[in-house]
Amino acid sequence: MQIEHVELKRFKRFHDLTVEVPAGTRLVMLAGPNGCGKSSLFEAFRFRHRAIAGWGAGWDLTYFPKAGEADVTQFSWDASVRITFDKAEPSDQEHRRKMFYIRSAYRNDPQFVVNTLARQGKAIDEQRFEWMIHNDAAVNLNYQRLASQALEGLFEEDAATTFGEYRQKLIGDLRSCMTRLFPDLMLNDFGNPLTAGTFRFDKGSSRHFEYKNLSGGEKAAFDLLLDFIVKRGEFDDTVYCIDEPEAHMNTRLQAGLLSELVANLPAGCQLWLATHSIG
Question: φ and ψ at 232, to 5 degrees?
Answer without folding.
Answer: -65, -25
